[in-house]
User: What shape does this take?
Amino acid sequence: ASPVVPSEVSNALEVLTRVFGYDSFRGSQQEIIDHLIGGGDALVLMPTGGGKSLCYQIPALVRDGVGVVISPLIALMQDQVDALQAVGVRAGFLNSTQDSYQRREVETAFVEGKLDLLYLAPERLKLDATMRLLDRGEVSLFAIDEAHCVAQWGHDFRPDYLELSALHERWPDVPRIALTATATDATRQEIATRLQLVEARHFVSSFDRPNIQYRIASKKEPKRQLLELLRSEHAGDAGIVYCLSRASVEKTADFLVENGIPALPYHAGLDSRTRARNQSRFLREDGLIMVATIAFGMGIDKPDVRFVVHLDLPKSVEGYYQETGRAGRDGLPSTAWLAYGLQDVVQQRRMIDTSEGDDAYRRRLGIHLDAMLALCETVECRRGQLLAYFGQPVDAGQACGNCDTCLTPPESWDGTVAAQKLLSAVYRLRRERGQKFGAGQIVDILLGKTTDKVRQHGHDSLTVFGKGTELKDLEWRGVVRQLLAQQLLGVEGDYGTLVLTDASSQVLFESRQVRLRREPERPARAARTSKP
Ligand code: ADP
Ligand code: ZN
Assistant: This one.
């Protein structure tokens, strides 16, 4: 790599102001851009909204040739190219949505050097024709956007990304920059290895999003809780509500509309025209709520998303971070609110058990889920936990003051006796009757409820029957959930039957202590700090 010549560096700043209309670089943008202009490879980890695009757009404008951007976000290419063309950048894209005439036009512009930036869908790189096309023009750099898609065990894995190592083999002298907003240390190493970015300099920005207020509440009547949140804190605001299933997306969107709140659905079951229309309405109109599965949102650049709500538990902390990161790109106060309950844990464990893939894969999913549960059940600062997860630990005692646990510190209590009662109910059913039941039945037994199902199975004659009346139904469910999260209890099968784990016996027979988080009577309605 040749050293950066000063005129090129001043060029970068000049491009920033003249083309993009900004006065100064943000964070490590300048360093990254200089490094790339100088011909170096880079691996960039920057949170959503951090300003990744300029990191390759400006070098592409400064260096000779065309910057080739690999992006999985086909649906957004048109928007990205339009936005660039609007500020006078010569940009084009090649993907499967075009007819051959449109493609040929872009190809010709590329070969003749009449483009600054060319966006490519990853699957096009498999085509020999694309490789030959790239040979015929001059490539100034390769930018690999959403680089975590190459991580095989990540939640956004795209097989086509594995082919991207070919870029380096075929064009060893063209600098490459891989960018992502989600990567733990392990994923970062995987990206570097798979994309053959061994020599690349890593630029890791802080993952803190101080303007996002993280809150995780226990799920009671999720739609009602959502409505209250929207009415009391986010009236008229734009936001995203994530649900796990298509059906709950539809139901939740209908529910909001019935209650006078403008909402649109988005999920893979809608035809592509409806999806595109809803997406563009969300981007262009004010105060709309997108109720969506996680199919929605990657690459969406809407600065004033004021809240991101999860009505179901995300599968991983990476997913949670990425999805909540879509709030508050403009830096103004925003809310990330997640409702989670026992049923989420049961459902996700079942999905893992029944998922396709080998044992290692399922174990991996389990580890992801456990990390997510730990975040939900923590009595410490949520932000501190999130940052620690991404390998950026904060000093102990450095509470952020802008998450629910900081604003209303949860109490913890000694749940050892409660845990023993609950586990022994599970144990006795299994040992004495050879039976397994779900949380509902176990809790009814502890509460001494003589329901039909209790009578039918003769569970009122168990020694633990009625031995748990010191806690209410909902509190017991909280205990079950937390024991599941702490892996002191397991769940299996289609009916979410509770089973003991290896660690259960430590509580039952070795007087292991169990600390539990107290369920607040009313979920904290956290005061908003003035912190930006
Ligand atoms: P990312 O891809 O990291 O999520 P973007 O590249 O979309 O982020 O940038 C997020 C927003 O910040 C965009 O609206 C972009 O124009 C703006 N932005 C980026 N860099 C700067 C800068 N140096 N000064 C002002 N605004 C910037
Ligand atoms: Zn905090």
